[in-house]
Amino acid sequence: MVAVVLNPPRQRVDRFYVGMAVTCVLVAFGGFAPTYWLQLVPGTFVGPPLLHIHGLLFSAWPLLLLTQVLLVANRRLDLHRAIGLAGISLATAMVVIGLATAIQTLNAGLAAGYGDRARAFLILPVSAISLFACFFVAAIANIRRPEAHKRLMLLATISLLQAAMGRVFFVLVTGGGPGLRPGLGEPPPLIIGLVPSLILELLIVAGIIYDWRMRGRPHPVWLIGAAIITAVVVLRGPIGGTATWLAFADVLAHIAG
């Protein structure tokens, strides 16, 4: 008979991060289901081809995160590192396409006569993409520090989920329906992005509580990340209405045009 010695603490860590990754996948796909995925089959989705590229790339990210977490849980670090190289290319493409999509939406809003409402609303996707890029770069810089690296990757993913959570509230407010999605009508006030974004920070709170139970204290990455995301979420509303931001939005619109 062979005795098998298990490592309960390590197993609990694996389960926690797998659970976090699964939650990210569910939020990402569940949030976009009414306004995108469920509209593809009946052909009711209305939007330019760039939105399909955007959807493909940004949907691939949470699936990649889950794959990477499962590989670590199964001790396949060699494959984890190899796929991580592809993740760098994916993240780069996401930043480029994400900004291009945001600017295209801005130009559509300007063409429709929404003016400063469209310019101000640009700060929501731009701030989310910027947070993702910053946390991702920090994660790559800490690749030899796995405790920081994995938490930074989760923070990068949580930053992206703001759009998915926002669509949940969009459906609750509008009732949803064939062809309906954000971006087709007048941009809503920036305050609409506050509650969905703060709700997502409950994932960070979960990480802090877990660390407190397992490590006796939260990892600094959680605390710094929470402070940064909260500051961006709270301040982007006031900043989006300033003359400086509106002028910056015009610069981006003209560059894309």
Strand runs, count: 0
The global form is: globular
- Rg to the nearest angstrom? 19 Å
Distance between the first and last residues' Cα: 72 Å
Could you name the key traits of this structure?
257 residues; mainly alpha; disordered N terminus
Your description of this structure?
This protein is an all-alpha fold and 257 residues long. It has one domain. The protein contains nine helices and no strands. The protein has helices at 8-40, 49-73, 77-111, 116-121, 123-141, 146-174, 194-215, 220-240, 243-256. α1 runs parallel beside α6 (146-174) and α3 (77-111) crosses α9 (243-256). The protein starts with 7 loop residues before the first helix and ends with a helix.
List the helices and strands and how they pair.
Layout: H1 8-40, H2 49-73, H3 77-111, H4 116-121, H5 123-141, H6 146-174, H7 194-215, H8 220-240, H9 243-256
Summarize the structure.
The protein is mainly alpha-helical. The chain has one domain (10-256). It is 79% helix and 0% strand.
